[in-house]
């Protein structure tokens, strides 16, 4: 496991007291249900009557399966005590508005980990440590890890939901770490590690103030976006972020690319992002299929660092106008017809 920590956090005694007092009660803001995950607690069984007071579960999945569901649009807030949770979790479509909150000082204190990989699981999409299918999902201060290593496709997270926020989270893997494939998704102050096409799929996603770390080189690139048509609103925006490379890559003299098109109309935009030495001078690749150069939408604006030489980039990289740059800011790119503001929502989280 990588030891990188995102922003340190402290949960005060006042916060803990407030949590204990509000469990399973109506808050002043909304009728949220708040429960606790603490290993060693007896497993909650189907049909069992919930006790009065704090409802405590031994595993995260047990809480996801059996925490009471608010009836008026409130959230299911699952507080997770620090530790390493060797489990795979599934947030189902009929479990909207779930919030997972790690109670450690940093995301490294609360880890959800498994080690499934494609060759032994029957395919890429049977490997994820966490599958998120419920809309309105939030995760804060957690690590999602697939520890299988360099054995092929092995997902840490599969995100197939709309209006999703990950804040102060880590995604650790090797090949295909994060499958961001559906809906609007906002990743802020996160850390994403992998080696081969490790951010991939067809979501409308913004990666804001993230660290994107390449752990090894196996012939892939950072992104493999899969937009299906030139009019689709999907794509990845990586803004105000920092790319880092493992010492092995730097020492080997190899290069890591910014992205290659999994589907013809792939769209990835880097805004004001740091590029280290070792980034492929051409920036993007066409996955060995020249017609992709005419259909893929790859662009940069404000890239900085020794790997950000615009004169060396592929000729088919797009040049963005100021209006286009503005359209790719998170509050615009993710707004949708419901005027969702993920930046404001994320700012309310601890």
Provide a compact summary of the structure.
The chain has helices at 13-22, 60-66, 118-121, 247-252, 292-295, 322-327, 330-333, 342-347; strands at 33-37, 56-57, 76-80, 83-86, 89-91, 98-102, 110-114, 130-132, 138-140, 143-146, 157-160, 164-167, 170-172, 178-182, 184-188, 191-194, 199-201, 204-208, 211-214, 223-225, 235-239, 242-245, 267-271, 297-301.
Overview of this structure, please?
The protein contains 8 helices and 24 strands. With 350 residues, it is an alpha/beta fold. The two termini are 25 Å apart. Mean pLDDT is 91; it is low at 1-8 and 10-28.
Keywords:
24 strands, Pectate Lyase C-like, 350 residues, alpha/beta, 8 helices
Quote the beta fraction.
25-35%
Which regions are unreliable across 5 or more consecutive residues at pLDDT < 50? 1-8, 10-28
Superfamily (CATH H level) name: Single-stranded right-handed beta-helix, Pectin lyase-like
User: What is the name of the CATH class?
Assistant: Mainly Beta
User: What gyration radius follows from the Cα positions, in whole Å?
Assistant: 20 Å
Question: What is the CATH architecture descriptor?
Answer: 3 Solenoid
The class by helix and strand makeup works out as: alpha/beta
On the 0-100 scale, what is the average pLDDT? 91
User: How would you sum up the major sheet?
Assistant: 11 strands, parallel
Large-scale geometry: globular
Task: Report strand order across the widest sheet.
Answer: 2-1-3-6-9-12-15-18-21-23-24
Total E-strand runs: 24
Give the N-terminus to C-terminus distance in angstroms: 25 Å
Number of helices: 8
List the domain count as a whole number.
1
The CATH topology: Pectate Lyase C-like
Query: What's the helical proportion of residues?
Result: 10-25%
